[in-house]
Amino acid sequence: MPNMDPEKTPIPEQAPGERIQNFQEVTLGYTEEQAKQEAERCLRCKKQPCMDGCPVQVPIAEFIGHVAAGNFKEAYSVITRENRLPAICGRVCPQETQCEALCVRGLKGEAVGIGRLERFVADYALSAAIAPRPPEKTNGIKVAVVGSGPAGITCAGELAQSGFEVTIFEALHAPGGVLMYGIPEFRLPKKLVQKEIEAVTNLGVRFEKNVIIGRSITVDELIKEEGFRAVFIGSGAGLPNFMRIPGENLNGVYSANEFLTRSNLMGAYDSSRNATPIRVGKSVAVVGGGNVAMDAARTARRLGAEKVIIVYRRSEKELPARLEEIQHAREEQIEFQLLTNPIEILGDKGEVTAIRCISMQLGEPDASGRRRPIPIKGSEEEIPVDTVIIAIGSSPNPLIRQTTPELHTEKWGGIIVNEETMESSRADVYAGGDTVTGAATVILAMGAGKQAAKAIKEKLLC
Ligand code: FAD
Ligand code: SF4
Q: How many Å lie between the centroid of ligand 1 and the Cα of residue 433?
């Protein structure tokens, strides 16, 4: 008999008052008993609508069936047939708009906790050192991957598993892309990211770190001089967007990208061990409403800010962040000033002193399908703050497109690809992830990496 409890089995978490004092993970994960109990809520539907909501098509009911039976190792091998980074996806995927949105149990209560179960299985496998096996021999065909975020790692893993000789070129000193430099430790522990990347590396993938493609070597040279038969570009969208309002160059204004990189990758969050400076005043305004904004706000809180305000120009309903992140931010006393847009950052002697905002109302839907925010005349107000963090999105860095002839790109910089094969306008060059879609999600980047790997295999093995 399935467990007909309409609610998910609760997951242990650090209490808000305690967790804002540290950078340890907020959500602690299920025990074996809790995982089995949650797995019993799955009805093992014949049609499995949940799978349609998963961009990499994890066989959800099959792995959950193994969890219910206590066969965790089996569950892991089912998941990793389709998803190479389950500990990460279990933690950061927006399940409520993907697999869980289509779960039948969600019609009369809460959906099965698919993400929580995926995370449980992955953590179990990582702690038991269970990993996918490398192929017995390689096929001698060299493929280059640019960028080691989820798109690049997935593409590399799929190809290496099939015997290709894959080298990942990464601009930074640490692999992982946003998983390492963007998403904070309290949401995605870095040890775990390293372990999942290691599992892919162990399939035979080589890493060349501190290599900027387009500067150290070009895509053209990789193909013509280094003997790579195909190149996959997964270079992300790491160039922060700004609002272009007066005052953005004052001291105390950060892009979320810089703020989070200083804290995560450069270790400012652990000042006892790292000397990286990071300035967080008493009051911080974070502009934006996505995951990046929530991460910046919650990081600022942990770094000692007494008041942190999210300033977002649309309403609660349009907030693009994962539900859990919004809820956690609220529990951590982050304030939300919605339907509000900054128009100027004010300063004194070069330092931020306040942010001037205007109230908004929502009009007709715009091209994104969301209702367009319209300023309300005469509603300007000043909010006193000493730090402003801008988290309004990011774009692909232009370096690769500038140094790769024949690569067609969108006006905003995204690389144009065939949506099925991820092949670009230049033969043998493929691309996927944020560099194609603009800032999106981990699982969409992984899906693109998988699609490209499939097309590369088909082309080079025929
Ligand atoms: P990236 O992860 O950006 O990786 C690209 C890599 O390419 C980087 O390592 C970069 O250094 C490297 N690179 C760039 N240019 C070059 C070059 N010229 N040569 C060599 N290497 C290069 N998504 C979710 O699903 N859930 C979340 O909760 C979530 N939270 C987020 C929080 C933050 C703070 C941020 C910034 C993003 C978040 N996202 C989240 C979005 C998600 O992380 C991205 O969509 C995803 O990482 C994109 O993967 P990618 O592989 O395309 O690019
Ligand atoms: Fe299980 Fe929900 Fe998927 Fe049905 S839709 S198989 S109940 S997870």
A: 8
